[in-house]
TrEMBL record:
Belongs to the ATP-dependent AMP-binding enzyme family. PROSITE patterns: AMP_BINDING. Keywords: ATP-binding, Ligase, Nucleotide-binding. NCBIfam families: Ac_CoA_lig_AcsA (TIGR02188), PRK00174.1 (NF001208). Residues 575-657 form the AMP-binding enzyme C-terminal domain. It comes from Chlamydomonas eustigma. Residues 58-118 form the Acetyl-coenzyme A synthetase N-terminal domain. Residues 122-514 form the AMP-dependent synthetase/ligase domain. CDD domains: ACS. This is Acetyl-coenzyme A synthetase. The keyword Disulfide bond does not apply. GO terms for biological process: acetyl-CoA biosynthetic process from acetate. One of its GO terms (molecular function) is acetate-CoA ligase activity.
């Protein structure tokens, strides 16, 4: 069914017992041992509400978390504000499709509000003057700061504006904004009134935005005039307008659009504006009352939708709910980064992705830290930018993606060394496998060999970190996400779904729910069940391959499905293929990933032209450009193919199925290792494709 264990990009090269970078003892935690310990009831001495000080404490807490998830998470949740406490039996679930519908409940009966816990709670406890959001513009001279009390006021004003426009509890609100303070403010304002936000990354095209607004039935859109990214200006409002028109063509009306004027990029005068439908943020929101009552919601009330790509079909609207997501994003932020109130923490992710939801908007604020919101790119104006920001604000925890590290590593160590990084305590990595070279550079050069590296494995669907080190509690190994977080029970399965014990390689599944498990795919619970719980009944299937070593450490080897990960952005090959086929000259397309030195994976597209186009199935460079432009238009610039390979024929089985394995080998110039191709309908296709490489 799946292709198991495709090794990617330097992964799996590190053997257990390899040169230790710091001299901490490597504990042996094989999965079998974890299970055994779990069944022996131990008196719990510590709770996860406090900082964890030793590997022994981690083990004790871990056992508790999987033996008694209801009790463990209730204990952690008790430090937050609940308008009404959860019921005694607040946790139940079914992960087994054979037994009935899949569902997960955490803190059932409990009533709370995540915005209250992220803002009001800190203000009520006397921390209103603590800086909450620090804005660092694309231009290093632009900055802004809001305290917790000020952020709360901004959130309330926007919440009041949304209410005045008729937004009610349960309505979905689309947000298409760049990384300015108003983006997390918008998310929190929705949460405050029980509205469901659906943030669409600012790099997505009008088509993609339209599809998401239509699917979620978002009648209200919050957007921005535009943004500067390095030296390029992007007219977001023009893209948003096109998306609204596309929705109207499909019979769906977006009737209210709020536009923030980001005048350093695109001024109001240069921004298209439709009176009646459109409203200027600065003129309307500022005059709203700065207090707004909280809408208390049930723990399982939907908090947000975030669309993500799968191996087939349209992107899925992953739904997360309030209580479980709140508790898990808070717990992982606290323990993985060692957060303490007032710390200056910087996550470089965009709020358009799950990392920006859990580890910028929610988790850190639930912990009362100071969050940096960075509008720019890591290499502008120079490759020193990140380290200048670290020095300027004395950043303690820094969280970024391997792709950024690889590009900064290329620019040379001098940019890093020129800045004072002595404030850094913990470094994090997310989004894709981190290759050992980048890991070592991060550790040795950026962190001066002092800071532990948190290689966090998780997904949009998991809502929070699943497999990750905890700072200083056990030895990391470059390239391994190491051990499970509390409440997470990973399983390595073979192709038939048998659970493998000890050292093993297979696909990664999760055995029982954690509080921020996705609850459904919006409007398509069947797809949720089929996609995540169908392949291996009883388990959540991650779509990733994985190896567990002799120490019980997990090594993620990359996706085993038709999803590729480009610079930490998840892209469905089927989506790129359908964007290519939309071009009138393209008859068929097949897209695969290939190893890319900076992006992790690049997009490699095989294109079969329509009869009569090109010469013998080969087009010219102008046509290549048009095809790439088509993908940018349909999905977004980040999904543009790196390579177009003319394919008069594609390697297909006799039943017509494309053998992607063959295409991957040709893309990575490894055609001598094709393996068995005897089931191909026409094996000569392989040689002709190899001949056309680079044409
Ligand atoms: C996929 C999820 C996690 C938030 C950002 C991406 C890959 C993610 C790691 C890691 C190896 C990783 C997986 C996963 N991935 N983190 N530390 N090591 N692979 O979220 O867009 O939902 O993508 O990203 O393949 O399935 P996403």
């Amino acid at each position: 069914m799946q292709t198991v264990g495709r090794m990617k990009f330097g992964r799996g090269q590190c053997k257990a017992g390899q040169k230790a970078t710091r001299s901490i003892h490597i504990p042996r935690v094989s999965s079998t041992r974890i299970v055994k310990i779990a069944s022996a009831a131990t008196a719990v001495q510590v709770t996860a509400r406090e900082q964890i000080k030793s590997f022994e404490q981690y083990k004790e807490l871990y056992e508790w978390s999987i033996r008694d998830p209801a009790g463990f998470w209730a204990d952690f949740a008790s430090q937050f504000h609940w308008e009404k406490k959860w019921a005694e039996d607040h946790f139940d679930y079914n992960f087994d499709v054979r037994k009935g519908p899949v569902f997960v409940n955490f803190f059932k009966g409990g009533v709370t509000n995540i915005c209250y816990n992220a803002l009001d709670r800190h203000v009520a406890e006397g921390h209103g003057a603590t800086p909450c959001l620090l804005f660092e513009g694309n231009d290093p001279d632009r900055q802004k700061a809001l305290t917790y009390a000020e952020t709360l006021e901004e959130v309330c004003k926007l919440a009041n504006w949304l209410k005045a426009k008729g937004v009610k509890k349960g309505d979905t609100v689309a947000i298409y904004m760049p990384m300015i303070l108003e983006l997390p403010i918008a998310m929190l304002a929705c949460a405050r009134i029980g509205a469901v936000h659906s943030v669409v990354f600012g790099g997505f095209s009008a088509d993609s935005l339209a599809g998401r607004m239509e699917d979620a039935k978002s009648r209200v859109l919050l957007t921005c005039s535009g943004v500067m990214r390095a030296t390029k200006s992007i007219k977001l409002k023009s893209i948003a307008d096109k998306a609204v028109s596309l929705c109207a063509e499909q019979g769906f009306n977006v009737d209210t659009v709020l536009v923030y004027e980001n005048d350093n990029a695109i001024a109001a005068a240069d921004t298209p504006f439709t009176p009646g439908r459109d409203h200027w943020w600065q003129s309307e929101v500022a005059s709203m009352p700065s207090t707004c009552p909280v809408e208390w919601v049930d723990s399982e009330h939907p908090l947000f939708l975030l669309y993500t790509s799968g191996s087939t079909g349209k992107p899925k609207g992953v739904l997360h709910t309030t209580g479980g997501y709140m508790i898990y994003s808070a717990a992982t932020s606290k323990h993985v980064f060692g957060l303490q109130r007032g710390d200056v923490y910087w996550c470089t992710a965009d709020c358009g992705w799950i990392t920006g939801h859990s580890y910028l908007a929610y988790g850190p604020m639930l912990n009362g830290v100071t969050n940096i919101v960075f509008e720019g790119v890591p290499t502008h104006p120079t490759p020193a930018r990140c380290w200048e920001v670290v020095e300027k604000y004395k950043v303690k925890q820094f969280y970024t993606a391997p792709t950024a590290l690889r590009s900064l590593m290329r620019s040379g160590d001098e940019w890093v060394k020129a800045c004072d990084r002595s404030s850094l305590k913990v470094l994090g990595s997310v989004g894709e496998p981190i290759n050992p070279e980048a890991w070592r550079w991060y550790h040795e050069v950026v962190g001066d060999s002092r800071c532990p590296i948190m290689d966090t494995w998780w997904q949009t669907e998991t809502g929070g970190h699943m497999i990750t080190p905890l700072p200083g509690l056990w030895q990391e190994k470059p390239g391994s996400a190491t051990l499970p977080f509390f409440g997470v029970v990973p399983a390595v399965l073979d192709e038939k779904g048998n659970e493998l014990e000890g050292e093993a390689e297979g696909v990664l599944a999760l055995k029982q729910p954690w509080p921020s498990t996705l609850r459904t795919v919006y409007n398509d619970h069947k797809r949720y069940e089929e996609n995540y719980f169908g392949p291996f009944p009883g388990y959540y299937f991650s779509g990733d391959g994985c190896r567990r070593d002799a120490d019980g450490y997990y090594w993620i080897t990359g996706r085993v499905d038709d999803v590729i990960n480009v610079s930490g952005h998840r892209i469905g090959t089927a989506e790129v293929e359908s964007a290519l086929v939309a071009h009138p000259s393209c008859a068929e397309a097949a897209v695969v990933g290939y190893d890319h030195p900076i992006k992790g994976q690049g997009i490699y597209a095989y294109v079969t032209l329509m009869e009569g186009v090109g010469h013998d199935g080969v087009g010219d460079d102008a046509l290549k450009k048009q095809l790439v432009a088509g993908v940018r238009e349909t999905i977004g610039a980040f999904a543009a193919p790196d390579v177009i390979h003319w394919a008069p024929g594609l390697p297909k089985t006799r039943s017509g199925k494309i053998m992607r394995r063959v295409l991957r080998k040709i893309a990575s110039k490894e055609e001598e290792q094709l393996g068995d191709i005897s089931t191909l309908a026409d094996p000569s296709v392989v040689a002709s494709l190899v001949n056309l490489r680079g044409k």
